[in-house]
Fold this sequence. Notes:
By secondary structure, this protein is α/β, with parallel strands linked by helices. Helix content is 28%, strand content 24%.
Amino acid sequence: MNTQHSPNSSDTGFDVVVAGAGVIGLSIAWELNSLGYSVLVIERDLPGAGTTRVAAGMLAPVGELDFGEPTLLEINMVSAGMYPEFVASIERACNGVLGYQRMGGLHVALDRDEAGALKRAHQLQTESGLRADWLGPMAAREIEPGLAPGLSGAVLVEDDGAIDPRVLVSGLLEALLAEGVEVRSGSGICSLKQKRGRVEAIELDGGERIETNSVVAAIGADAGRADWIPAEARPPVRPVKGQIVELKGDPAVPVCEHILASERVYLVPRRDGRLIVGATVEEQGFDSTVTAGGVHELLREAYRLLPDVAEMEFLGAVAGLRPGTPDNLPVVGASVVDGLYLASGHYRNGILQAPVTARAIGDIVGGAEPRGAIAAASPSRFESAVRG
Ligand code: GLY
């Protein structure tokens, strides 16, 4: 049985401490603050310096749909639908523009084999009731003239979009600051203090104790190995490495207007002329080294798709760790420790799933059931496995 909290219930300390200041942690803090809770965000590194910094920020539930994942699709669709208001609420508070764009995605088959796979993916999209249009090579090149001339076909997903996660983090930080929410960086949680099986405080690396009855672990791939999370509550989250390359062109003459994707690479244009080329998917444990092989593969595949990338400035490459789970669903909800909540396991969809995750944590901390398909992301589905 988990403790339920009413807003602003604590006299000292905080109603809720959120561990992790990536997009997930900051979005949760934003939601909890708007519900009236006193919130403290604790970040071991710098806000947004983890996987968020590496994410391309695709909001593409349709284009990224895979076989056998209807619940994931539902979660992603709900969260995509929440995005306009989520962004607007942050923009109102930070007086800035976060650059959320529904520019659409074009998924391209570069040869006949790829066309077969893309046709099957398109069939899945239409059978799932989603809007996606098959285009022949000429039609595809009409809307994206820079595409490789030999392409076999494409699927246009008009509703997909993107946001720059680094801009989103800046906006969230400003909005939280404007609301008086403290985001403390440079020190992580080193232990969770419990009394009679309930969270009563946390202790930071430097020894400081902070009173709270609710802690949300929004620490990405680290959730699977964080010592301060009691072993029985630690979710089976593993790091899945992704490398990206950043290129820069003239914003007045963008190399593409849509998100472009082939079987092996995706390209996400930013308004400032940057192009994000992503991403490798590697099971390498906690290794976030940028490798020559990773960069070579991304650039080779980007060039096959959009030859104009060869003329762009190479800004750099970074690697991050997606928090993967055994079933590709996130882990969002109450843990077996009373007062400890988990918000991790977002794998390839962290930026997309931020609004629905934040809303679910708001519901659960308040003692309600999470709304909709995100209920399937409850940590309880792993409890027998975790306990062995
Ligand atoms: N959502 C894209 C990725 O994880 O690479």
